[in-house]
């Protein structure tokens, strides 16, 4: 099974690395990090470079594609080379997936028309611009399209997918191997549970998280 | 505040990227990924390269050091260049931290003698070899030494540290921005909660996770 993790300048690292850490442990998985061009990309903070080992155009037909998000939604909705590649490979994938605003990329590429999708909670209202139906759920499956909420949701998305692809025993073994027994010190991870003042502050200044 | 995330060939990516995604959002944080030599390292699966932007020897005195783990514990306990650097900078750090078997590296470098530390559940029994006291907790603080359990525990470790460093409002804002509202589809993330047969299987074949 060939999995392609898309990388690009300005992406959020954990969007891709969370699910990579889970899905790369699937029996028979072959994982490739790929970008519009091969070589390093710099993530959104400016502090980290990940390497695209291959150019997307040079990748074999993937069974699974995962598209991470990032704060610069304007760039993501106008990246025609990535969109064109996604449109080209999507008909033959078994799974087309995204984390965070990666769903906005899939939607802007025209792949989520009429489909329900998750995204970062601050980006959900962008999805209808491209004909997608936003959902506040953490992991959303609509046919072969599996989309996750913001940043850290990719881990839950990947374990859900691992169970569907390889069964619950494999998914649980991956969870045990990566000791995914989360204990957040606060219950502030969703606009439904965080202190309202913090939610309002991020809504008023989404530039801290993303620039639309 | 200068944070150094150590990278090396064979490391587990999420060990570093989870806490990086949280701690890089601290106000005033300057983050550097650094290795014994500058340049790309290949992570444990062979499928991903991260770039060390600088050599450790060229980094200014860090306020915080984070050491990730990886499956090849034998290499980690004999990496004298990394150990020497850790011993050199540790006296001036505010926080010396690790995720997963990163604590075995700290311990092998001689920094955890008489201290309580977390590690991957399969590696806890390695800590006493170096005078450290193993703890099954997910995040352990002993003075300025903060150590996390396996792989995904770095996210909880980082939010705990963020609250200590910058206060609970900042930590909760980071949690909300990264939508860290975990919903694992199974409760298999710890040897205490996973199906016993899966725990036994990983114990019998730890090579799936690490080679000691």
Keyword list:
homodimer, 212 residues, alpha/beta, Rossmann fold, seven-stranded mixed β-sheet, two-stranded antiparallel sheet, 7 helices, 31% helix, 19% strand, globular, Class_I_gatase-like (chains A, B)
Task: Provide structural commentary.
2 copies of one chain form a homodimer. Chain A has 212 residues and is of the alpha/beta class. Chain A has one domain: 3-Layer(aba) Sandwich (Rossmann fold), CATH 3.40.50.880. Chain A has helices at 13-23, 73-76, 80-89, 102-108, 153-166, 168-177, 196-204; strands spanning 2-6, 30-35, 39-42, 49-52, 54-55, 64-67, 95-98, 116-117, 133-134, 139-142, 145-148. In chain A, strands 5-2-1-6-7-11-10 form a 7-stranded mixed sheet, sandwiched between helices. In chain A, strand 3 and strand 4 form a beta hairpin. Strand 4 (49-52) of chain A pairs antiparallel with strand 4 of chain B, so a sheet runs across the interface.
């Amino acid at each position: 099974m060939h999995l392609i993790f898309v990388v690009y300048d300005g992406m959020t690292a954990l969007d891709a690395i969370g699910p990579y850490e889970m899905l790369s442990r699937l029996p028979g998985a072959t994982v490739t990090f790929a970008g519009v061009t091969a070589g390093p990309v710099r993530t959104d903070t400016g502090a980290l470079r990940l390497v695209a080992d291959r150019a997307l155009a040079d990748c074999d037909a993937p069974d699974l594609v995962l598209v991470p998000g990032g704060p610069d939604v304007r760039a993501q909705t106008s990246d025609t080379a990535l969109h064109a590649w996604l449109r080209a490979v999507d008909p033959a994938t078994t799974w087309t997936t995204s984390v965070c605003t990666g769903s906005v990329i899939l939607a802007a590429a025209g792949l989520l028309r009429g489909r329900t999708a998750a995204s970062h909670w601050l980006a959900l209202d962008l999805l209808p611009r491209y004909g997608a139906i936003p959902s506040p759920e953490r992991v959303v499956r609509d046919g072969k399209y599996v989309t996750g909420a913001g940043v850290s949701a990719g881990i839950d998305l990947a374990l859900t997918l691992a169970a569907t692809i390889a069964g619950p025993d494999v998914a649980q073994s991956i969870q045990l191997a990566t000791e995914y027994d989360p204990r957040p010190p606060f219950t502030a991870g969703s606009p439904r549970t965080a202190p309202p003042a913090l939610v309002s502050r991020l809504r008023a200044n989404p530039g801290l998280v993303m620039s639309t």
